Amino acid sequence: MLIETDRLSIVEAKAEDIPRIIQLEEDPLNRDFLWIGTTEEHLDEIQDPNHLLLVFNEKEDKRNIGYALIRLNKASEVFELRRIAIDEKGKGYGKESMLALIKFAFEELKINRFWLDVYPDNEIGIKLYESLGMHRDGVLRQNYKAERGYLDQIIYSILKEEYFKEEK
Questions:
Q1: With contact defined as beta carbons under 8 Å apart, do 56 and 64 qualify?
Q2: How far is the C-alpha of 28 from the C-alpha of 44, rounded, in Å?
Q3: H-helix or E-strand containing 44?
Q4: How far apart are CA 90 and CA 8, in angstroms?
Q5: Which residue among 11, 147, 150, 159 is the one 20 to 30 A from 4 at the CA level?
Q6: Could you write out the three-class secondary structure of 52-115?
Q7: Residue 36 gets which letter from DSSP?
Q8: pTM exceeds 0.90 for this model
Q9: CB neighbour list of residue 154: distance below 8 Å, 6 or more residues apart
Q10: Rounded CA gap, 78 and 122, in Å?
Q11: Cα 16 to Cα 146: distance, rounded to the nearest angstrom
């Protein structure tokens, strides 16, 4: 087990987890807010030492409730949360997962900067990131072309010094 919370076991994904990950990505409640990877792309992520593909499993009944994709820049001590998707909305799993990932990044991996990007219409994600004390760094205007048009990407981050200041 990589990370444990009150309700979740967060572990590295295996090849057999990929169909579930793609199912989460394609879910109508998730698909507008994240990139949908292919089986081959996810297999490459599993093999790449600069990526962590993680699955979130409910400890009580072992069911998968989400996943995250992280890109690590070890030389610069940067943890980029590239994707996160939770199946069961409104139950606090998103916040529990984010808190665990942030703690893991700073306390276990000794990262200096944790960051992510979010589309402006992902109001639930933005509210969560701001509630966790993440800093809104700026906006990459019309940075991504999707079926729904050109999308801005808002950058949020938290630094090691900010995390440990909050922890005290």
A1: yes
A2: 25
A3: helix 39-47
A4: 16
A5: 159
A6: EEEEEEECCCCCEEEEEEEEEECCCCEEEEEEEEECCCCCCHHHHHHHHHHHHHHHHCCCCEEE
A7: P
A8: yes
A9: 117, 118, 119, 120, 126, 136, 138, 139, 140
A10: 23
A11: 29
